[in-house]
Amino acid sequence: MRYSLIIVPFLFGLTANAVTVNISFLLQPVCTYSNGKIRANASGGVGPYRYLWSTGDTTQIANNLVAGPYSVTVTDFNDEEASASYDLTSTTYALFELSIFGQHARCDSVDRLVLDAFNIPGPSPYYINGVEMSESGGAYWYDYIPQVNDTQFVYSFADGNGCTGTVRDNVGWPIEYPEVEILEIHGSCSNDSSGYVTIQTGSEGHGQPVLAFLRQLGGDNFPGVQGPNQTETRWDLPPGDYVFEQVLEVAGEPFLFNSCPDLTFFTIPDLGPGCGTVRGISYMDADQVCALTDFQLGLPNVLYEILPGPYYTYSQQYGGHYAIELPTGTYTIEQVSNTLDPWCTPGPIPFGIVGGTGPVHVDIADTSLVLPTAADIQVMITSGAARPGFELEYAIDVRNLDDGYTGSHVLTMDFDPVLSYISATQTPASDTGNTLTWNLQNMSGFQTSSRRVRFQVPPDIALLGTVLHAMVTVAPGLPDINPANNTADLPVTISGAYDPNDKLAKTSTRASDSLYYVGADDWIDYTIRFQNTGTDTAFNIVITDTIAANLDLRKFTPGPSSHPCELSIRNGTTLRFAFYRIQLPDSNVNESASHGYVSFRIAPKEPLLPAEEIANTANIFFDYNPPVITERSVLTAEFGTGIQAESPIQNLWLMPNPTNGSLEVRVSDHTASGLLQVVSVDGRVVLQQRMEGPRTVLDVAQLSRGLYTLNWHAVNGTVTTQRFVRE
């Protein structure tokens, strides 16, 4: 037999909590005005609840009430009722509690108290301390001169009906607008927008928010201008008079009641109708439609050659835009790159400059010459001066020359054992002997990874004339299409007195500081060094270098620098390195930090004539001072086998150093051969071995601990020397 259990709900005998209600005020009415607000708070019983106020309102909250007694009856779902009453009293104005805001805009020594009349229940006119407030567009303000800065003031307030109260104003500091410096101005061709200006701003004295605007007087506004602590160049200005305006910011907008903005005026000169501008962008045409869209990647640091001329320009680091001013005429423009293919318009692109007709636009759609599974990574190294007892700093740049990713990669630096490692801007993953190693993360397209490494030179004057060797190598995570630029070396000679502002040239073979060997050398590495030897901080430093006619800007590559800098090409052939906000201390305050340098690589134009000079000079501008002009850096073209006779230095690296067993020997000449000799401090040859090719390994485990000299006798008769320590 099957039984079923049926449960029937029995509700009649259950006792629920009775419904109750109380009233709380949300807003007291001001004076005699009907802006009060109260709320009924019901509980118990069975919801939902119904409300009935003595005013006839049927909502939970009763609004627009004057002072007086009020009651409410609440009915629940079972029609059970509960009632409550409340005596609403009035108050005086307390404008902060009413969300009426006081704002201040310190103009000189005057503070301005501003009220929004929209939320004031009483009529105008309004009075502060008995003085009628000024009015415009529904806003009211009261100007006064506070006696104390950065504090709170309380004032009496009255409306047109005589209802009173108080208003509080948090007084800030007077506006101290950021200092504005016009660092550079260039004119524009008529009916064109080829002018540019570089504007630098400081900080507001008390941290108050400031907005900035650039306007052409009687013309257009130029959006996107930054506020305090910025250095910005605008490249798109037509001729005319301009004002750079700074105003106080309130809630992200200019403060409309500020009667004293900060104004800086300047003029973009009119260069006349005999010139014009070509401008555009090289971009990665990912969808291969030969059209620039919002999703295309602009390519930075791309070089362009314009013929006849030649003229050169360089795309901006951010966004990839380029622009260059040219005389009227017919030209072609061509992108110079080993990794980019302008596949939509291959070869030089013709265009014409007609004076007074506005800019010509030429965009270049690119694809990559590097497979997605490969990379092209370049490493370069430069340094400051080496002096006994002082620090020596190296700068290393690892640059992705393609738009793709590089994968994780490893950077190593082998430095001279004479030096003692101090620190690096990015701490190495390992520091073993005289080798530093960094594990680098995946780099995106055209990204550059930089680091500066500090060493101590021993305070030994016997080291004068010693050549310090350093070599950096990057091991890409992907196959590299050009392994030749994965290694770079730099010999630096320890010197005593020297010109702190100079320009040095080293050829690719490092064979000579005065000769360029045609057929052996491939490029020249220039380093421009500078030092602040004045009596105060240098805030901005600009270096210009007009490239000699027999140097080929098509083969220009920027190198490492001591500080971040902006690179541009002016007038078609002048390199400009701008160290904005470098804040380089003077040598009297901080000698080691008073130095800086910048470098680049370039090759001569071919053919070179015998004894032809390759001369170059740089101008170094410290703030607004006249330029410091470096001595001419001169290389002389040399032919034949003179490279062997001239060279006292043939690059030789030993690693690890110190060593406790094996010693790897490397030379820069990949066709090298010769004899290696290890010499002890007493002059005895304790080990010798033939060397065929650029690399070999010496077993020095049998040698006693101490200092040794390794001599490499090349087949051409030159001898290169390096020291090492057997631990």
List the helices and strands and how they pair.
Layout (H helix, E strand, L loop, with lengths): L19 E8 L8 E8 L6 E4 L7 E5 L2 E8 L5 E8 L4 E2 L16 E6 L10 E2 L2 E2 L1 E3 L2 E6 L6 E8 L5 E8 L8 E7 L8 E7 L8 E7 L4 E2 L8 E7 L2 E11 L2 E2 L7 E7 L6 E10 L12 E2 L4 E5 L3 E4 L6 E7 L1 E8 L3 E2 L7 E5 L6 E2 L2 E5 L8 E7 L7 E10 L8 E7 L4 E5 L5 E3 L2 E6 L7 E9 L10 E9 L11 E7 L8 E6 L7 E3 L6 E8 L9 E6 L4 E11 L4 E5 L3 E6 L15 E10 L8 E4 L2 E4 L5 E2 L3 E6 L3 H5 L5 E4 L6 E6 L5 E7 L5 E8 L2 E5 L6 E9 L4 E8 L1
Parallel strand pairs: 7-14, 23-31, 23-32, 43-53
Antiparallel strand pairs: 1-2, 2-4, 3-5, 5-6, 8-12, 9-10, 9-13, 11-12, 13-14, 15-16, 16-19, 17-18, 17-20, 20-21, 20-22, 23-24, 23-27, 25-26, 25-28, 28-30, 29-32, 33-34, 34-39, 35-38, 35-40, 36-39, 37-38, 40-41, 42-44, 44-49, 45-48, 45-51, 46-49, 47-48, 50-53, 51-52, 54-55, 55-58, 56-57, 56-59, ...
